Amino acid sequence: MQLLYWLTLLGVTGLGVTKAREIHRKVPDYALAMDYRSEDWSACGLTDEQAQALRHALVQGLHRNDAERILKHYQFIMEEDVEYPAALREIQTPPPLLFYQGRFVSNEQRVAVVGTRKCTAYGKRAAFETAQMLVHGDCCVVSGLALGIDRAAHRGALLAHGRTYAVLGSGIDVIYPAQNQELAKQIIETGGAVISEFLPWTGPERYRFPQRNRIISGLSKAVIIVEAGAKSGALITSAFALEQNRDVYAIPGSVFSLSSAGTNELISQGATPLLHPALTLSTLGMQVEHGLICASERRDDPVIQRKQFVEDQEVEDIVQVEQLIIRELAAAPMLYEELLMVLEADNTCTQSIHTVIALLEIRQVIGRELDGRYYLIGHTNLST
């Protein structure tokens, strides 16, 4: 009967999750609710229209067929169930109901990887490789099944043979966008889950996507914003994460890239920069004492030792690239292609050059002239 009660409350037009939860706290029992008259519901803070609608829905059993359909055909979990994720209970407005397809595990380590739908090749690769590293750290990757960064994060987790959750802005029967139907199927078949707080047959609406973002961050111990413009929906997720006391990380991008305007701003406001996908575990490993990354606690595991060796090597590569760029720009401004040629001639790893340049720009160590040449800020070039 609790399922029917929740469906009835959430079905009242304009009531919303917050008010529905408030009513449920005041009147937690379906049988008791059946005895309430419209004026009783009005005394609970509902408008006259809402009170009448709720009374009518209860008396007529308007949502009884929905409840029977859900019980027969769908997997779901309610907030009062012991299996309900503890992390979600902590947030300001936990979803009373979660519907899902696949395997939903309540007590695992999860990290969200999100970003813009209109991502660049740089962002797509960063999301893909970051998700893979999280899988190596025994984390489930949480994202929103949107195009762009979300899709890349899900695919990265799958190709690393990991688990990933897709939190939808529609019902679990209505995969949106349609291009991701096959991806959703793969997520389910490989031990992950497609999750939604909306009735399974609910279609996508613009306002539902920001609403689901609180679940993406709420399920996760940390949120990584890969690439986001100044008005990207991913910034809503980061705001929810901060409200929920989650750690927020951002991958820096070029100061000239509109797709990175939001992430760079997050870093300037205090978000921890994630300087390279290979550094994901070591960067988030600062939270090991809180049990965030389980795998990094197994120091004696040879597999973990190997991964740590790879990360340490990547750190050395980044430092080497940074030092070489500063050295060359101290002599004269250079184009990106010229810097790349110097690195190649020096047998230096060039994979991290985009990240290093972006980081140096954010730190205001280097700048870029109108002709595209990079220069060292506050330095008198030797050629002048």
Automatic annotation (TrEMBL):
Residue stretches making up the Smf/DprA SLOG domain: 76-277
Gene Ontology biological process: DNA-mediated transformation
Coiled-coil stretches noted in the UniProt entry, renumbered to this chain: none
Highest rank taxon of the organism: Bacteria
InterPro entries: DprA, DprA_SAM, DrpA_SLOG
All residue ranges annotated as the Smf/DprA SAM domain in the record: 6-57
Transmembrane segments: none
Family statement drawn from the similarity comment of this UniProt entry: Belongs to the DprA/Smf family.
PANTHER family named among the record's database cross-references: PROTEIN SMF
Name under which the protein is recorded: DNA protecting protein DprA
Organism annotation: Sulfoacidibacillus ferrooxidans
